[in-house]
Amino acid sequence: MKKPWMINRRTFLRGAGAAVALPWLEAMMPDAQGASAARPPVRLAFFYAPNGIVLDNWRPKAAGELGELLPILKSLEPVKKNILILSDLAADHCWSAVAGHEPSGGGFLVGAKCKHSEEPEVGGVSVDQLAAQKAGLKTPVDSLALGIDPGMRGDHGYSGTYLSNISWRSPNTPAALELNPRQLYERIFRGRTPKRPDWNALGIEEKPAAQSDSIEGSVLDLVREDARDLETKLGFSDRRKLEEYFEGLRSVERRIEDASTDSHTHHQEGFKDDLPRLVLPDGRGIPSTYAEHVALMLDILTLAFQSDTTRFGSFLFSCEKSGRAYPEIGAAGSHHGTSHHQNKPDNLAKLTSINTHHMELFGRMLERMSKIDEGGSTLLDNVMICYGSGISDSNKHNHDNLPVLVAGGGGGAVRGGRHIVYGKKTPICNLYLEMLARVGVDLPKFGDSTGRLDLLT
Amino acid sequence: MRAFAVLLLLSVAAPCLAQDKPKDPSQKEKDDAQAKAKFAAENPFDFDRSIRTLLNKNCYRCHNEEKKKGNVNLQKDENPRMIFENPKVWLTALEALEQKQMPPKKEPQPADADRKLLIDFLKKTLNSLDCEHPRDPGKPSVRRLNRTEYDNSIRDLTGLDLHLADDFTPDASSYGFDNIGEALALSPVMVEQYHDAARKVMLELIDRKAKNPGSWLRVFLGEGVSARVIIQVFATRAFRRPVEPALIDRLLGIYDKARGKGLSHEASVRPMLTAVLISPRFLMRLETARPGVKEAYPVDDYDLASRLSYFLWSAPPDDELLRLAAKGRLSASEVLEKQTRRMLADPRSQELVENFMGQWLQLRGLSGHTPVAKKFPTFTESLRSAMRQEMDLFLGELVRKDRPLTEIVDADYTYLNEELARHYGIDRVQGPEMRRVLLPDHRRGGAVTSAAVLMLQSDPERNNVPRRGNYIAASILGTPPPPPPPDIPALEDSKTAGKEQTLRQLLDLHRSKPECFTCHSRIDPLGFSLENFDAIGRWRDTDAGAPVDASGMLPDGKAFRGPVELKQILLARRDEFTKTLTGNLMIYALGRGLQREDDCVLRAALESASKNGYRFSSLVVTIVQSFPFRHRRNPDY
Fold first, then answer.
1. Closest CB from B169, B254, B459 relative to A334
2. Can you tell me the distance from the alpha carbon of B570 to that of B409, in angstroms, rounded to the nearest whole number?
3. Which of A62, A108, A328, B190 has most Cβ atoms within 10 angstroms of its Cβ?
């Protein structure tokens, strides 16, 4: 609901001349109670760290206000007030009698068990994709599923898909994992400069795209009609693939329309040096080092949130069970191998370095988010990011006492700076249920949830 | 199956319904029961009418989806086919029924006749593998082109080798391969990627045509050929089969529309071709169905051509295959065999090496494996590249020249350049180019003792004995051990205070633990026999100052030592090796997991191999000629 006295930013700009970069105007701000139209929306993200985490170097000794952070979390000191460490959450659905890692990655965000099969089938739609399906249509891109490593080979009768994906559009279809920053950038920003959103314009109805008579439109129409004919000849599981195909054609169509008309009405102006400009490497567009690759992917995610290009994302630091070596930080052996640490100090030290390295890259992103002004609040205030692993200790393959933290203010829902210890085996799905509620997706249950996780008290 | 049973039910029930309408319910029940009994007597093994009732009464109460008593769920196998596919569980059930261990004593027991009926049913069902009359080619699944297949298809279609798929979303790996129909999902982002890629192809093809004079299509486009001929040729090749005239007309409609808007001939061709490149007919392998047919039927010749070419070349059929398909001759057995041999001998079969062998032998990880530089300063990028080329050339010769598949285990030649030769301790090779070299002894030769495999099955900083052993047990012999239990006890658990122990002593200790013994007694000896090779595959006689002990004893008590004797053991078990290779090759060829009926093909391949000196082609030809490769059935709607 828009208040009548609020100046529509677009109207204002028309008078002032669009070339001028404007500071945020108080008159455009929502009142203290947060008028819905002008408040930046909550954005959700889910970060997955594979092969468990050395909890001794993560979990604060006591519950309550955060004191000095332990080594793995040390890099979060500057944004500590926006961090909630959640202890004793469990993901029973990650357990399997025959494999430790495979169902942990694939099932983590789904909240139900993965089928023991080489033909991948998880127990439902993952939390990020569910949010995107219910609330993602307001932005040009419904969600992002980002990663670094190409797929893994499965083992013990599980498809490699389970190790390589955490985001699932349907039980059989993982959200397409994007690894190449250049291609990602080009796809989501469509060759245009990302713009600063005008939250005051959020409520404005978009005009339905005019029936276009373009040649490109005819190409898509033809292909769609032809595929409809094919569909009748296919079996159930193959028709599913075609449904995804049609959805893809719609995305292509939207971007063609966007190229001619700015259908995303609340975009206003180019960013003015909030952050250093993104530099996409030449050639294929993939940075040569792991850290630079991660940082660039997270910069693009940040930019996608900042410009309201999407509101939902997931990020995989590496595949579950990944054997990636990190010689650059003194952990040359296989990550998975090291994670079966057998309590050897050398292994624990290496594993801690890997965990810390991931966290530093995450912390860097949070710091950048904390510097992005969204008109009285920062981007960090308006995100809610779950960071965790489906395995607690890779040496034991246990799925309780998980390392989980929530970063960001959740649009005011989260009071950070604390360590909360829940009852043993509180389902992590309770957290997902709470996060869904924060973006307006109210569900009675998600996975094995027993209720919304209480974060405020 | 179930639909069939319902039909039967209707046909049996119909006469009762037609008779006297107002019938008292108890009489109707009696009639029903009688009809049921009569039907059961006539069809004792009918699952839905007889067997399921018995299972319901005697088995499902405990062994169901929820209770899974003893971790056994019998209810999930809903028909005889599923029971047939799950022999491990049902053979146990059969035994328990025969021994009267089940149902448990304290539970109500079935009548002897019922018990016998169940036993007979299970025996018949589980032994119903009938290789003379194969029936099930497996569940059909549309196979989306994977990244390699996409790139090769674009290359063959346009003459442009653009590698656009490098940046597509990675393909899922199932059963160890990235071409499995059920795992190759399609999601909207990928359609955007295909659309982008199609634009890039058009850009290269038309706008930048001067830069690519080699493209046949470019020449074709430049010669004033009519739009109809262009689209006819392009779509036929792209869809790998003749295109219905109506679709050609619709594609031409796009061209006409563009011309109508004043665009040039070339600019108008572009959207027409784009439509082809983003069509599911190009992006997926859609096979022609025969609506209404219940049984399996032969795939049509064009589909067979695609099955063959994507299997052996990871690419679309070439002109010769399409020509034979057009004449309906490809499916003739002798033609099919001749084509298979032609394709194996063709350089394009290198794709089978890279994609099939590369995944089966797990060589694809080579570019991502980096030995610790401090420990292995002689490792260089050029050495890595030579390791890869060795395998490409060696396995390429095996495929193209049709060498015996046992050479994968042991061969008396390989391909080396100076750097790799020095790495192997061979000093008469000079210069950077790879060449065929006869080996002085059997320590090298074959994939198992290649630097590539030995390095990849090591950790970056040291050897990994169980890992190498597991590789041989699983990939070569087809007997993967079950996963290790979680919370593995630390190797130096029982402290032998202060005493430095060798890896062997530690693993001996490990094997002494009962939870570790079963598997490690099988895999460790295999791994130990390769201890003369370090973590980058160099030969060594000592390890940390002590002489290398490469001896081991297999669970059957056979003692052996070193790689040469390991190879002898593997060669003695060449039937297991052949079956493992065939099974993997079949999964790759069919794009699906194996089912029990596929055993028939494995047996036939083994027989053919042993008659033909284990030549690689004997497996490929057997698979190509097999029932599941040449047939399909309609999907479940």
1. B459
2. 7
3. A108
